[in-house]
Amino acid sequence: MEMKFCQRCGMPLTNEILGTNADGTPNEDYCIYCYKDGKFTQDMTMEQMIDHCAQFTEEINRQSGQNLTKEQAKEMMRQFFPHLKRWKKGNDVFPFSDAPNTAVFICSHILDCGEEILFVSHDADDGAWQFLCGKEHNESDARIVSLKYVLDLDPTIGNLKDLPLGYCAERKSKNDKRVIIKS
């Protein structure tokens, strides 16, 4: 029998821990810790997932008979995870209904200083997307890039693909859950 793995965290999959689709049926690709009710349970990048999974290194060692350090486990995950469905590059269908080359606004703090995207707005008046760091801005801080560029910069914004016009999503740090509110 072929061993199946969660296509997000790499955990061995058994029928007891299958994730669930929106209609409640089992999802054959993801575990319940990663996917529930048709959605990913946490908003994180591949590297954040690796950091999260590394806390279970002792359990991994116990089940596999290995004696890995956390850093060795992380390095193994960095080799393995890009082959999992969730993290595979090039196979993903663009998640937004807007085209990948849609022009969007992003602040210079994100582009030039590496700040995190903490505020996302989908404007009601013109359908424009804005990706901001949460700091104060003036017009000279505005930059225009493609929606795909922003998705490549932070894949977790793909979870906002259905953000309605006139709404925004905000979080205090990259580790916090985004809160969606009407603008």
Description of the structure:
By secondary structure, this protein is α+β, with helices and mostly antiparallel strands. The chain has helices at 46-54, 57-64, 70-80, 108-113, 147-153; strands at residues 18-20, 26-31, 35-36, 39-40, 103-107, 119-122, 129-132, 142-146, 167-170, 179-182. The termini are far apart. The mean pLDDT is 90.
Question: Largest beta sheet: what is the strand line-up?
Answer: 8-5-7-6-9-10
Structural class: alpha+beta
Oligomer: single chain
Shape: globular
Q: Any low-confidence stretches, pLDDT <50, length ≥5?
A: none
User: Separation of termini?
Assistant: 52 Å
Please tally the helical runs, counting DSSP H or I stretches of 4 or more residues: 5
Question: Radius of gyration, rounded?
Answer: 18 Å
Chart the SSEs and their pairings.
Blueprint: E1 18-20, E2 26-31, E3 35-36, E4 39-40, H1 46-54, H2 57-64, H3 70-80, E5 103-107, H4 108-113, E6 119-122, E7 129-132, E8 142-146, H5 147-153, E9 167-170, E10 179-182
Parallel strand pairs: 5-7
Antiparallel strand pairs: 1-2, 3-4, 5-8, 6-7, 6-9, 9-10
Summarize the structure.
This protein has helices at residues 46-54, 57-64, 70-80, 108-113, 147-153, and strands at 18-20, 26-31, 35-36, 39-40, 103-107, 119-122, 129-132, 142-146, 167-170, 179-182. The chain is α+β, with helices and mostly antiparallel strands and 183 residues long.
